Amino acid sequence: GLLFSCLSSFAQNKQQASDTVYHYEDQYLYKQQHFYNKWKKKAMKHKWSKELFKILLDPPTATTPSCLKQIRSSSRSLIKYEGMRIEKINFRIVKPFGLSKNGLPTDSTDNKLEAFGNKVHMVTKEHHLKRLLSISEGDVLDIKQLQDNEEMLRSLAYVNELFITAEQLSENSIALNFLVKDKFSWSMSYQAHSLKAHKLKLYNKNLFGIGHYAKLQYFYSPNKYVVNNWGIEYTVPSIGKSLVRASTIVEHSSQHDKYSLELDRPFVDYKTQYAGGLHVNFVKNSERVPTNEIAQFPNSINYQEFDSWLGVSIPYDLEKKHKYARYRKAITGRLYRLRFTKTPDIKIDSNAFLLNTTGFLLGYNVSQRQLYLSNMLYNYGKVEYIPYGHLAQLFVGGAYNQKHTEAYIGGNFEKAYYSKNHDYYFLLR
């Protein structure tokens, strides 16, 4: 097919990406336009479907999805500033519904339904996003580290789109500018299991605009052991600046009574030296157990779970052929403890999986990972990260209870490829 290449420059920030060439295949633009027009024609038959169509879909163009958007959202377009001091980090937050101008989102809208959605939406707070970053004002710009932070921001459930630019303030300093388009935070679901049984769930993925996740659910079931079933889940994305995610769950249902607490700090970027997590689970009157997904008991099991892990990065020679790939060697360990406090009778030929169990694993991990930015065919205007690279793991461990002891040894190897020749929008370096 016919290929068009475009080099994008941004006079506003006085930066160029002359080392990057974006290719766009004309045949796919035609296919997308045909698909878009087909559904637009159907949506125009009703007022409600017309408004919904405007909210969900943007027309595919050669400029919006591929050229302008990709280069403004790629950290690697800022290579010329690498090594400079980050004097300022600025965030501009755009509400979830609005018109686009020159390929960039705005708060402006002429749609009443969109305006109402923006009004009830909780806008993300700038200080919250700054707290999630592993880079700070005063640091030296590291493109690989910036890419890790960009990937983290894009993965947030309440972030729809992200654009990064840099403004040179002096010979050796810059300001990093993040333009973030919010994703609508409220959602609700309802299920009718019969004429009498009903389930209602209410979610907010960005409570108070600081990334807190809240979930409330209620299940009315008059024919069950518990008639009024309810559950609460609450998650804090980072405790202060620690980047430790905290989550708690409380449930009272006909299946169990559950109290859960989880703390988790991942390898935030390729410079992270330590990571780990802790999960504590208290369950009463349960129908099921973690060691057997098939067996069911009439609300007669009480148990406690303790699951923890720790990871330590090992210094790795980064002088590889892929300059902007992230390499990591790490040693990881896991300790798991399952303790039953109430069970049916345990015999030689039955319920042997209800024994108190302790397990542990020790692993050695080597990984190389790189990312390409790409637009999927029908995700109009949505930039996706496509990872590729490899992961090799070797692990040993064991588990024991009152009856027997087992030992484990295993390995895992994964390799992902990115084929730029089969993608609809892709970049070459």
Give your account of this protein's structure.
By secondary structure, the protein is α+β, with helices and mostly antiparallel strands. Helix content is 16%, strand content 46%. The radius of gyration is 26 Å and the shape is globular. The protein starts with a strand and ends with a strand.
Largest sheet: 12 strands, antiparallel
Molecular shape = globular
| Percent helix range | 10-25%
CATH topology of the largest domain: Ubiquitin-like (UB roll)
- At the first level of CATH, the class of the largest domain is Alpha Beta
Number of strands: 22
Order of strands across the main sheet: 10-11-12-13-14-15-16-17-18-19-20-21
The overall number of domains is 2
Task: State the CATH architecture of the largest domain.
Answer: Roll
Span between N and C termini?
A: 21 Å
Task: Tell me the fraction of residues in β-strands, as a range.
Answer: over 45%
Count the DSSP helices: 6
Task: Give a summary of the structure in a few sentences.
16% of the residues lie in helices and 46% in strands.
Give structural attributes:
429 residues; Ubiquitin-like (UB roll); 2 domains; 6 helices; globular; disordered C terminus
Question: Topology of this protein?
Answer:
Layout: E1 3-6, E2 9-10, E3 15-16, E4 21-25, H1 26-43, H2 47-56, H3 63-73, E5 85-94, E6 100-101, E7 104-105, H4 112-120, H5 126-132, H6 143-155, E8 159-168, E9 173-182, E10 186-192, E11 198-207, E12 212-220, E13 228-236, E14 245-252, E15 257-265, E16 274-286, E17 301-314, E18 326-342, E19 357-375, E20 383-400, E21 405-416, E22 425-428
Parallel strand pairs: 5-9
Antiparallel strand pairs: 1-4, 2-3, 4-22, 6-7, 8-9, 10-11, 11-12, 12-13, 13-14, 14-15, 15-16, 16-17, 17-18, 18-19, 19-20, 20-21
Helix pairs in contact: 1-2
